[in-house]
Write a structure and sequence with these properties.
The protein is α/β, with parallel strands linked by helices. It has ten helices and ten strands. It has a single domain (2-231), classed as P-loop containing nucleotide triphosphate hydrolases (Rossmann fold), CATH 3.40.50. It has helices at 40-48, 70-76, 93-99, 113-119, 121-125, 136-148, 166-181, 193-199, 217-222, 224-231; strands at 2-11, 14-24, 29-33, 55-60, 63-64, 78-81, 154-158, 185-189, 202-207, 210-216. It has a six-stranded mixed sheet, with helices on both faces. Strands 2-1-4-5 form a four-stranded antiparallel sheet, with helices on one face. Strand 9 and strand 10 (210-216) form a beta hairpin. The radius of gyration is 17 Å and the shape is globular. The relative contact order is 0.18.
Length: 233
C-alpha cells in the first residue's frame, strides 16, 4: 500500500529526516513511535506532500507520489487526521463532513454521513453545532470522520488521542479497531503504547530523524529495552 525508502527532509538548512525507510501493507495498522521532536510528524508530512522531500522515494498503491502536493495524494486515497484536528470552526459538524465528501477510488461501500454518525453517535447529536463549540474529543471524532468521508485507502493519524480524557480515548481506539476490521490501512502516531500494541500489526521507532527499530506488536511488547530507551515508558 505505502512504501517509503531513503526519505530525507529539511526545514530550511536544518535536516529533519535521515534516510527513513518504512512501509504499510494493505489492511495493516502501522505506528510511528518516538519522543517529541524525533521526526514522526515530519515523516507523515513528507509522505503526504506538506513537506517536500529532498531525497528518497514514496510509493502509494503502486504509484510514485514523492513530493506530490497534498490535494493530489488525497485524491489518490490518503486521508489525514492532522495533529491539532484543524476542523473548520465556522462550519457545523454536518458541513465539516460533507465539505470533504468524495469517492475518488469508486468504493462500492463508501463512507457516508450516516456511517460516520453511526460510528460516532456524539457527532450525530451535535450535527448542527459549529465546529468551534465542540469539545476536544468531539473535534477529534470530527477530524477522523472528515478524513473517512474522503474514502481513503490509507488513513493517517497524527497524535490520534493526544490530550483527550480516558473515556474519549477509549471511544477513539474502539473506532479505529472498527476501521481496521473494515480492511482500511492505518498509519498512526500516538504515545499510548498499550493501546497501540492492541491495535497495530507493526511499529517503527524513530530517534533523531531515523528509524532505529521496527517489529511486530509481540516483539515490541517483549523489547522492554527499546521502550525504555526510545519511548520513555
Amino acid at each position: 500500500m505505502l512504501e517509503v525508502r531513503g526519505l530525507e527532509s529539511f526545514y530550511g538548512a536544518s535536516q529533519a529526516l535521515f534516510g527513513v525507510d518504512f512501509d504499510v501493507g494493505a489492511g495493516e495498522v502501522v505506528t510511528m513511535l518516538g519522543r517529541n521532536g524525533m521526526g514522526k510528524t515530519t515523516t507523515l508530512h513528507s509522505v503526504i506532500g506538506i513537506v517536500a522531500p529532498h531525497a528518497g522515494m514514496v510509493r502509494f498503491a503502486g504509484s510514485d507520489v514523492t513530493a506530490l502536493p497534498p490535494f493530489r495524494t488525497a485524491n489518490l486515497g490518503i486521508g489525514l487526521v492532522p495533529e491539532g484536528r484543524q476542523i473548520f470552526p465556522n462550519l457545523t459538524v454536518r458541513e465539516n463532513l460533507v465539505a470533504t465528501a468524495s469517492n475518488h477510488q469508486n468504493l462500492g461501500d463508501p463512507w457516508t454521513l450516516e456511517k460516520v454518525f453511526e460510528m460516532f453517535p456524539d457527532l450525530a447529536a451535535r450535527s448542527s453545532s459549529m465546529g468551534n463549540l465542540l469539545s476536544g474529543g468531539e473535534q477529534q471524532m470530527l477530524a477522523i470522520g472528515r478524513a473517512l468521508m474522503t474514502n481513503p485507502s490509507l488513513l493517517v493519524l497524527d497524535e490520534a488521542t493526544e490530550g483527550l480524557a480516558p473515556l474519549i480515548r477509549k471511544k477513539i481506539w474502539d473506532a479505529l479497531a472498527v476501521i481496521r476490521d473494515s480492511g482500511l490501512s492505518i498509519l498512526v502516531v500516538d504515545k499510548n503504547i498499550k493501546d497501540l500494541l492492541r491495535l497495530a500489526d507493526r511499529h517503527f521507532v524513530m530517534e533523531k530523524g531515523k528509524v532505529v527499530w521496527s517489529g511486530s506488536s509481540g516483539q515490541l511488547k517483549q523489547a522492554e529495552d527499546v521502550q525504555h530507551r526510545y519511548l520513555g515508558v
